[in-house]
Amino acid sequence: ARSARITGTVRMKAVIGTDGTIKNLTAISGHPMLMDAAMNAVRQWVYKPTVLDGLPVEVNTEIVVHFGLAAPGATG
């Protein structure tokens, strides 16, 4: 996707488990060449568990990943 200079946004539905890891991930929209990279990245993320009444709970959420092209020589 980078060599083809493709940019865009990938939207995904996710379930974040009681341990903060991604338990279920489904692509909703985005460029097909960006979806695998976005999903592979998000599967590695670990969130701080959500706590309700003192107990960790699963959370259904939407995750958005933006892909852009950096200017030559840019770091970040």
Descriptive account of the structure:
The structure is a single chain. By secondary structure, the chain is an alpha+beta fold. It has one helix and five strands; from the N terminus they run E-E-H-E-E-E. A hairpin with a 5-residue loop joins strand 1 and strand 2 (22-29). The model has no long low-confidence stretch (mean pLDDT 89).
Helix content: 10-25%
Distance, first to last CA? 19 Å
Biggest sheet, spatial arrangement of strands: 2-1-5
Question: Radius of gyration from the CA trace?
Answer: 15 Å
What is the structural class? alpha+beta
- Our count of helices gives 1
Per DSSP, what share of the residues sits in E-state strands of 2 or more residues?
35-45%
SSE blueprint:
Blueprint: E1 8-16, E2 22-29, H1 32-44, E3 50-52, E4 55-57, E5 59-67
Antiparallel strand pairs: 1-2, 1-5, 3-4
Q: Could you list some keywords that capture this structure?
A:
1 helix, 76 residues, 5 strands, two-stranded antiparallel sheet
